[in-house]
């Protein structure tokens, strides 16, 4: 059995290179070699740290020390060279990294500035968002088509104003060396004419934006019109680099104008035509420090660009105060005044619209009645022409204007409370001016012309302020569209329906007395507020005070009451009481006189 097992073991291990009986010996030899390399003792290891090896003798120490010093010097020299090499390598790596980062940052900055100018140039290419919005708004109303202009590059007007030709030349860049202010009442067609002029050239070289009272919103709208992001899309913010956007909105507008100036210089060199920048609804700016600073900034650029033919700036405003503000520093400003249509153009426009879009042939008398009620205001004519019953629509417009005026400026009479005095000052001043316009119309030789139509009464601005006895209210009346101030500083009703409302209100029975009672009540409340009451107490029965004013000197005396004669049987105590009363009377006279004298001095100072 043993032999067979051994043979079987040899036979089973034929496939291995080393016979099985020799494998334990080989494993033991490998373990001994590992222990020799690790300097470990042979045999099983006891618990604890490994042996440190044989201890060197003191005699051998100097020898090894001397030989070790030589090796150490050589090793130290080799280490310094390696350290210097590594330091140089690290420095070069750092310098290369910083150089690459700086080159990439510089290249990105140059690329970003180049893209800013490219985007701004693209903003003045043909086509404009304003035209797209206008086309969408016009599809279902006036034009009835699917395009903004026809084959002849003309919008399908149902009324054409005489100022349209001049505005077309301005927007096309043919009128140079000036910037323009288009001023007129709300609804006269100023914005429509500007959009028409832009449509004829497909918005090439033009940018238009709507003003706003908030400077931040104005900044955003300016950036949208010029395709300028004000460095908000700069990647430098990812590396915590402070950008220029940390400043206010006014500085952002200045930066946008700096970029626009570079684009205008390039365009003048290549094309030879100035850019057109249109600011619509400038009256929405607030008449405060921020609004005045923004308006002054834009005007300075407009003056500079018009002088160098870089750009033509167009302001569009409904209110007079914009003109009054720009007038202070204007040298190249051209004022374009937009008024209502005359009678013939208004009637012709109404007839053409009804015939073309409604297949209606209104009579001449009906058209005249409509004009008598709404006048030549474009917005009113547009609403009336689209209505089924034109006369009823005209009456609704007149009623709405009258309601607006009464809601804003109606007076309360003699029974008003003193808490509403400030509001009643505002309302009564408007009523006084409205009554003055109605009275002036009665004195006019001609208030209606067969060809021109309505002739509204006008009062110079300084006279209107004198009539109201207030100089600060007229601007607010212009803002709420009750009175209008034109570029010649004349005050008149805002529209024909508003003048009709003035006539109806002032012709009511008892209106003059009611207005006079309101003014008297305001005067009484103001007088009561300026009056000081002086109360004197402790008078004797029948006693009197005498106050004398002579040569700006005040004399205050007290008079005793007349005393009846009494007998000699008065007691001495009574006489002493009379003496005390005289002394108290003298002190009272002195105190009251001083108090009244101080009051008069304070009134003189006021």
TrEMBL record:
InterPro entries: AAA_16 (IPR041664), HTH_AAA (IPR056808), P-loop_NTPase (IPR027417). This is Orc1-like AAA ATPase domain-containing protein. Keywords: Membrane, Transmembrane, Transmembrane helix. The keyword Transmembrane helix applies. It comes from Cercospora beticola. Residues 165-311 form the Orc1-like AAA ATPase domain. Residues 407-526 form the AAA protein C-terminal winged helix domain. Residues 66-75 have a biased composition (Polar residues). PANTHER family: CHROMOSOME 1, WHOLE GENOME SHOTGUN SEQUENCE, ORC1-LIKE AAA ATPASE DOMAIN-CONTAINING PROTEIN. Residues 41-75, 556-588 are annotated as: Disordered. The chain crosses the membrane at residues 90-108. The keyword Magnesium does not apply.
């Amino acid at each position: 059995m043993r032999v067979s097992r051994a043979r079987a073991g040899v036979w089973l291990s034929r496939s291995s290179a080393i016979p099985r009986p020799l494998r334990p010996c080989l494993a033991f030899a490998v373990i001994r070699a590992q222990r020799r390399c690790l300097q470990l003792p042979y045999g099983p290891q006891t618990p604890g740290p490994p042996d440190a090896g044989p201890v060197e003798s003191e005699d051998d120490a100097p020898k090894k020390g001397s030989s070790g010093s030589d090796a150490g010097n050589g090793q130290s020299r080799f280490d310094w060279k390696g350290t210097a090499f590594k330091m140089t390598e690290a420095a070069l790596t750092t310098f290369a990294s910083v150089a690459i980062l700086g080159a990439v940052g510089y290249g990105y900055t140059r690329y970003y500035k180049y893209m800013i100018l490219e985007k701004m140039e693209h903003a003045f290419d043909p086509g404009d968002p304003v035209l797209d919005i206008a086309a969408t708004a016009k599809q279902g109303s006036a034009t009835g088509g699917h395009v903004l202009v026809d084959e002849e590059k003309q919008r399908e007007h149902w009324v054409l104003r005489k100022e349209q030709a001049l505005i077309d030349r301005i927007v096309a860049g043919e009128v140079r060396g000036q910037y323009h202010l288009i001023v007129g009442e709300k609804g006269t067609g100023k914005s429509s004419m500007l959009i028409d002029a832009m449509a004829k050239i497909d918005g090439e070289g033009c940018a238009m934006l709507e003003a706003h009272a908030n400077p931040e919103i104005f900044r955003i709208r300016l950036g949208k019109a010029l395709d300028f992001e004000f460095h908000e899309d700069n990647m430098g913010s990812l590396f915590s680099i402070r950008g220029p956007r940390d400043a206010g909105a006014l500085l952002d507008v200045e930066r946008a104008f700096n970029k626009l100036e570079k684009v205008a210089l390039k365009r003048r060199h290549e094309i030879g035509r100035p850019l057109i920048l249109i600011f619509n609804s400038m009256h929405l700016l607030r008449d405060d420090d921020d609004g005045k600073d923004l308006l002054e900034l834009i005007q300075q650029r407009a003056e500079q660009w018009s002088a160098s033919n870089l750009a033509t700036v167009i302001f569009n405003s409904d209110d007079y105060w914009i003109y009054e503000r720009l007038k202070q520093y204007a040298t190249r400003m051209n004022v374009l005044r937009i008024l209502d249509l005359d009678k013939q153009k208004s009637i012709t426009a109404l007839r053409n619209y009804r015939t073309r879009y409604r297949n209606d042939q209104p009579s001449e008398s009906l058209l005249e009645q409509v004009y008598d009620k709404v006048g030549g205001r474009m917005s009113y004519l547009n609403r009336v022409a689209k209505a089924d019953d034109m006369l009823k629509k005209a009456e609704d417009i007149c009623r709405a204007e009258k309601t607006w005026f009464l809601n804003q400026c109606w007076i309360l009479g003699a029974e008003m409370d003193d808490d509403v005095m400030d509001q009643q000052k505002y309302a009564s001043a408007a009523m006084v001016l409205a009554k003055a316009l109605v009275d002036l119309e009665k004195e006019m030789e001609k208030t209606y012309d067969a060809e021109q139509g309505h002739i509204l009464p006008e009062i110079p601005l300084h006279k209107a302020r004198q009539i109201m006895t207030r100089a600060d209210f007229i601007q607010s009346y212009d803002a709420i569209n009750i009175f209008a101030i034109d570029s010649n500083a004349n005050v008149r009703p805002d529209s024909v329906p508003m003048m009709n409302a003035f006539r109806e209100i002032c012709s009511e029975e008892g209106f003059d007395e009611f207005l006079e009672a309101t003014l008297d009540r305001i005067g009484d409340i103001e007088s009561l507020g300026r009056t000081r009451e002086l109360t004197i107490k402790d008078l004797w029965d029948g006693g009197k005070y005498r106050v004398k004013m002579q040569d700006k000197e005040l004399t205050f005396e007290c008079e005793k009451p007349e005393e009846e004669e009494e007998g000699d049987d008065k007691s001495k105590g009574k006489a002493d009481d009379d003496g005390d009363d005289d002394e108290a009377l003298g002190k009272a006279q002195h105190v009251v006189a001083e108090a009244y004298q101080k009051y008069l001095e304070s009134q003189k100072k006021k």
